[in-house]
Structure formats: C-alpha cells, structure tokens
UniProtKB/TrEMBL annotation, chain A:
<dbReference type="Pfam" id="PF10531">
    <property type="entry name" value="SLBB"/>
</dbReference>
<dbReference type="InterPro" id="IPR037225">
    <property type="entry name" value="Nuo51_FMN-bd_sf"/>
</dbReference>
<feature type="binding site">
    <location>
        <position position="413"/>
    </location>
    <ligand>
        <name>[4Fe-4S] cluster 2</name>
    </ligand>
</feature>
<feature type="binding site">
    <location>
        <position position="371"/>
    </location>
    <ligand>
        <name>[4Fe-4S] cluster 1</name>
    </ligand>
</feature>
<feature type="binding site">
    <location>
        <position position="410"/>
    </location>
    <ligand>
        <name>[4Fe-4S] cluster 2</name>
    </ligand>
</feature>
<comment type="function">
    <text>Part of a membrane-bound complex that couples electron transfer with translocation of ions across the membrane.</text>
</comment>
<feature type="binding site">
    <location>
        <position position="368"/>
    </location>
    <ligand>
        <name>[4Fe-4S] cluster 1</name>
    </ligand>
</feature>
<feature type="binding site">
    <location>
        <position position="417"/>
    </location>
    <ligand>
        <name>[4Fe-4S] cluster 1</name>
    </ligand>
</feature>
<feature type="binding site">
    <location>
        <position position="407"/>
    </location>
    <ligand>
        <name>[4Fe-4S] cluster 2</name>
    </ligand>
</feature>
<keyword id="KW-0472">Membrane</keyword>
<keyword id="KW-0249">Electron transport</keyword>
<keyword id="KW-0813">Transport</keyword>
<keyword id="KW-0004">4Fe-4S</keyword>
<dbReference type="InterPro" id="IPR011538">
    <property type="entry name" value="Nuo51_FMN-bd"/>
</dbReference>
<dbReference type="InterPro" id="IPR019554">
    <property type="entry name" value="Soluble_ligand-bd"/>
</dbReference>
<comment type="similarity">
    <text>Belongs to the 4Fe4S bacterial-type ferredoxin family. RnfC subfamily.</text>
</comment>
<dbReference type="InterPro" id="IPR017896">
    <property type="entry name" value="4Fe4S_Fe-S-bd"/>
</dbReference>
Amino acid sequence: MLKTFSIGGIHPEENKLSAQSAIQELPIPKIATIPIAQHIGAPAKAIVKKGDEVKVGQVIAQSSGFVSANIHSSVSGTVFKVDDVMDATGFRRTSIIIKVDGDEWLEHIDRSEDLVTEITQTKEEIIKRVGDAGIVGLGGATFPAHVKLSVPPGKTAEVLVINAVECEPYLTSDHRVMLEKADEIMVGIEILMKALEVKKAIIGIENNKPDAIAHMTQVATKYSGIEVCPLKTQYPQGGEKQLISATMKREVPSGALPIEVGAVVQNVGTAFAVYEAIQKNKPLFERVATITGKSLKNPSNWKFRVGTPVSDIIEAAGGLPEDTAKIVGGGPMMGKALVSVDVPLTKGSSGLLLLAEEETARKATKACIRCGKCVSVCPMGLEPYLLMVLADKKEYERLENDAVMDCIECGSCSFTCPATRPLLDYIRLGKGKVGQIMRARK
Amino acid sequence: MNIIVITILALCAIGVAAAIILYFVAQKFKVYEDPRIDEVEEALPAANCGGCGYPGCRGFAEALVKADDISNFNCPVGGAAVMSHVGGILGHDVKAADPTVAVIRCNGTCDNRPKTNIYDGATSCTIAASLYSGDTGCQHGCLGLGECVDACNFDAMYMDKETGLPVIIEDKCVSCGACVKACPNSIIELRKKGPKSRRIFVSCVNKDKGGVAKKACSVACIGCGKCVKECPFDAITLENNLAYIDYNKCKLCRKCVIVCPTNAIHELNFPPRKEKPATKPTAATVKPVAKPVAKPEADTAVKSEDKENGTSDNK
C-alpha cells in the first residue's frame, strides 16, 4: 500500500490539464514590477532609485533581517520608479518598476545548460549563497530557504524531505520541472544535504505522476542517499507535517518545527533554484508556473521572470476565456483570488487558475448539521466546526486551547462541508487574532 | 404527645444553634461593600455597553466610587445629566463632557466609488479585510459588509442599500464605540456632537496620494491642503495625504466645506446657506449621502473582463 499521512485528508478532482505541456519561456515583459516583499518575513529594502541602470541578476532590494530575502532584478533596463503599486491582494505595496531594455545579464551568471555536478563549496558558503541568491520556498509559502538550512544549535537534521508532491489540483509546474530538470534537481538536493549535513534525502511524489516517479527514481540511482517515495494521491499530502508523517512516520508535535523530529522539508522547485544559485551563480528571479483552467485555450507551463504582469502569461496561454469569473493565484485549494490582471507574478506564483462562474460561485452558508465531516478530514486533527464558532464569537482563549494555531489552512474543512460554511475564513481570522495575542504576551 | 413536644423542642434548639453559628460566621467573613456602588449603579442607564471603558455599568459604578476625582469619567449613554446625578451621590464635581456621536468617515457610495471586483466570501468585514483590499479601488474605505451594524446594540445603525454604506441614526446613537471597534478599516470615529448637532468632518480615510485616491473614489480627500490654508482656527491638519479636522478647535465656520475640491468635507445639520457660493453646491445637509458627481471617466472603470473576484476560495 502507498504511504500517506496518518489522519484526515480529501481527494479533490485532480484536473492536471497541463501535465503534458513542456515548459516554455515567457517573453520578457516591457515593464517589470518587482515587489520588495515576495517572501514571509521582513520586506527587503530597496537599494536602487529612479534612473538607475540595472542588469539581470543584480540585487535591487537588500534583505532586511534574518527572516527576509534579497530581491534581484529579473530584467535589464532603467529603474522607472520605486512606488506603491497594487499587489495581488489589492493593497498598495512598495515595488520597483523597471523599464526593460534588452536582456543583459551580470557576467558571472553561467547561462549554459551544462550540468555541473561537482560541489566545491563548504556548508557555510552554501547557506550564505542561498541567502544571497534570495531563494525562498517555491511551494507557495515563500519562506526564506536559508533560514530552514540554518539548523538551530542543539538540534540535528537527520533527513532532508523533498516536497515534490504537488497535491494542489490543476498545478503541474513541479511535475514538469522534475521531468525536464531531474539531474539538476538531484545536484540541488546533494547541495542541500551538504548544507544540512544529512546522509539521507527522501523525495515524496504523489502517484498521480507515474512518469515523474519513474524518471526521478531512475535518475536518483546515480546519486547516493537520495530515494524516491511514491505517495498516495491525497490532499494535503504536500503539507510539511503531513509529508513528514507520510515519508518518515514521525509526527511533528503541536507548535513545533519539523527540525524537532530531525526533518527539514524543501520544495523540489527550491532544490532546482539552489542548484542554479550554487552551480550557476544565478539568483532567484525566474521560476516555472502553471496557467490552467477548463475554458483556457492552452493550459501550459511557463518559465517567467519575476515582475511580469499576470496579463502577459494569460495572453501567452491563449487569452482570457469569456466565462472567466475568478483568477486564482496558486492552486484551487489554498490559492488566493487576484483583484486584477495587472498585478505582477512573484517568486511565490506557482500557478494561475482561471475559473468559470459555475466552478467558483459560493453557495449560501447554511446551518451546521453536526455531521462531523470537517473533523474527519482535518489533517491536523482539529475540530473546524467548533473553531469557526469560537472565532465568530471572539472566544480567543478557547481557540488557543483548541490548538487553532496548528491549523495549516489547507481548506479541507470548507471543501467538504455539506452546509457550505466558510469554515476556513473564520478559522484563519481566529488564528490571526490568537497569533497577535500570543505575540503580545511574549 | 410527649414525642411531638420533644421533636418540636429539639428542632427549635437545632434551629437556634444553627442561627447563632451562621450569625457569627457571617460577621467573621463579612465583605464590606460601599453602599454607594448600588446607588450609583441605580443612577446609571444600565445599558452595559462598555462605552465608558469599564465592563458594564456595575464595573463603572465601582470605579466611580473608588476614584477620588471623577471629572475624567463619562457615561456616554447618560451624558451630563446622569453624570451630575452621580456626582451628587458621590459628592464630587463633574465636568460636563461634550456629548459625542459616531460618524462614518467614508462616502464611497456605489456611484462615487465604482466596484472593481466582486467579493463572495464570508459576510464579515474583518475577514474581507484580512483577505484583500476590498471590492473597490480604495483600500482604506468602507467594505460595506455591515460588521458595525451587527456590533451596534442600540439599533442606531443600518446599511443603506442604495449607497452600500452604514448610516448612523443620531438620536439612537449612544456613542458607546462598539462600531468603532468593529470596523477593521477604522472609518468610524466618535466626534463631538456639536451645538444643535452641527458638525463638520472629513468624510474620507484614504491615505493614498491624490491621484490614486481620486481615481478610486470621486469624493476622496486628495490631500491638497486647501482646507488647511483656509481654516482660520488651525483646526485642520494634513497627514499622509489626508486632512483631519480637530473637533475641539473647529468653530463650525464652514469655510473648508466650500473650498474642498472633491466635496470630501461634510457638514451636518446646518441650515441652508443664505447666499450660495458661486462655485459649488453645498454639501449634504442631513446625512452623508451621495452628492451629484460626474460619472467616473472611462479609464477609471476597469474593463469588465478584468473583474476578478477577491476571495480565497475552495472550489
């Protein structure tokens, strides 16, 4: 039997429409809008000003703390202005707007496709380079990668778990990267293993990608210590704690980080970015995203430069279908709807999903019928129906006692609720408030 | 017969003994409570709204009795009458606080502030605000989901279906501040009621630069500073592209209302002007309703195909 996590989980329709479409390169935009906050943690500090000439790969915003990341220019040209621009949530945030002129890269970036397998750098150098290259978790949460690689004193990492699950329906970007860049990923994993001083890496892949499992297993034989672990297709298999439970049979305690059980989880896309940063001197300014949707002419996977407007990738995939009612940034389960097509794609953009009215319309909220479905699907073993009521009634103390902070916001509860209650919306609200209270207490 | 007498006597003896014990126990563990607390609580309006900052009227009464100086305490519901009564009970001087009332500092009606997307998530302003900037181009203004109305315990608010904005019924508003706390965008403010309920305020909280604000909403404060220059009493300050009128300094001269180029400054409950200024019609006189404005330019309206919904949704 295939491995999976211990409790809960759902199986939404997979809809991997773009799985057979090879990664294409998206044309460089005319104007790139690069937000200075593309990661969890403190926003970077812009170090360029209006009129400055920038090259591809140049640092344009400096990391402003340990949990922060550098931002590099994805294009070459002139800085048009540094201004507050609408981001995907509609709020105005500081961004660097660059007028593109040609495509001139910094000289030390190796643009060849040759595979470099020899790892010459030491552990410290690797971690520093990963930080300098502005690499963040490319699964969507955008947590700065160098932070996870810096194992806190007193703890030891035993296993590196590579998240190649791609459990979100529709998305196929990781799938395609694995098929096309398997060797690079393996070297990236070896680099990560060296940085963490671990001897073992497990790549978790859901078995709805048999071609990727076969290809990765075959390539992995060339590298020591890396094994591929096929997993059951079950959402949210790609949740950090779920993945550890499935691959290592260890449970991360409530409120603790994976390092507590000796695990470090990195996304497969991150491994590829690490390869490029260490072996090719290439910082993170481009990545692969899926654009998909049932009415879309050409669901496909694109390598894009950070800062490209969403409208460009839609145009490249055949234009906006007539019946589009919602554009979701990310997958259908955890993605967030965009307020406009003029917002830029960022480091965290793993996909764009165009949904028609009938797919996305919310049904009216009905009374809870106490069926307990949300409880049985919750992969963290929480009681979503109760948490929702507590959040609505502002019972923050009880919310905290009922472990609301363990919620991974996967949305399985809302997905499964027969009374179509907006469970996650309220739980997320309560989680935010409880988080505030807990921080204030410290 | 004898048995009955003995029984009665025995029971009486037990009763008396228990009564004596209870009396001494009660004396021993007596908790002294100032009788004035009850008296003061009686005088308070029993709304238990928390507008004074204390947990209910009882809590407020305890605080009042404990305090040496109650001139800084105020019951917004009871106002000066109740406070002077309380002052009488406690033998303290009471400074009559000016009555306040809640005002909505947003005039982003459907006409003034065109919608750029549709929200279909949970009906809660706080949730909407945590997800995104709102269904219009303005990221500061009213989200229109009525959390303030739900918070009001005095039926003093309702959502105006036409404008999509909450409306405060002045006579019912007790200025408890529940709506102020409920609003995630902090658009509601408790302001001095003013003589004959006349007051002037900037009906906008948009801190964006003028051009951005104006593009999102035709009656936004664009931070031009005309009112600041016009005000003879230095009552208006401009911070982050937003004017704010200090109600303690404002003498209700209404000069700022006339000069405001976007009609963002509202005057309430004033009689109609005798001689109308040549340039502009007067602002709304009863409640902040939509003023006649030109339809937004074509370029400010988002193309229909660009209208995306703004919620994170689980399909």
